[in-house]
Design goal:
The radius of gyration is 18 Å and the shape is globular. Strand 1, helix 1 and strand 2 form a beta-alpha-beta unit. The strands form 2 sheets. A two-stranded parallel sheet has the order 1-2. Strands 3-4 form a two-stranded antiparallel sheet. It contains 3 helices and 4 strands, in the order βαβαββα. With about 110 residues, the protein is of the alpha+beta class.
Length: about 110
């Protein structure tokens, strides 16, 4: 197989990049280790804790020991399916703080 671009990971960013590149006429290969996101635990937002704790859908990442949390390690759910972490987040999102956007603009991030 040959392509202009190879994108590793079919999460939100990878799929958006693949779409935009192919829309511009480039040939694209998208590689995703995980499987389909079709399943009752992913399709039902109220079940969000299930896919985040299932090896089938989650990579099982943990943080390094956190010194200010008594050395505990935190669970870091990351989606292992087409759609990536967006497929296992239960439709939860966090809107960026306005101050962050203002700071980026002041630092020269126009547009």
């Amino acid at each position: 197989m040959q392509a202009d671009y190879i994108i590793v990971g079919a999460g939100s960013a990878g799929c958006a990049m693949a779409y935009r590149l192919s829309e511009a006429g480039a040939s694209v290969i998208v590689i995703e280790h995980g499987g389909s996101d079709a399943g009752p635990f992913i399709q039902m937002p109220a079940a969000l804790s299930y896919p985040m704790n299932m090896r089938r859908y989650d990579w099982g990442y943990m943080s390094e020991p956190e010194p200010h949390l008594g050395g505990r390690r935190l669970v870091c759910p990351r989606g292992k399916v087409i759609g990536g972490s967006s497929s296992i987040n239960g439709m939860v999102y966090v809107r960026g703080h306005a101050h962050d956007f203002d700071h980026w603009a002041e630092a020269g991030a126009d547009g």
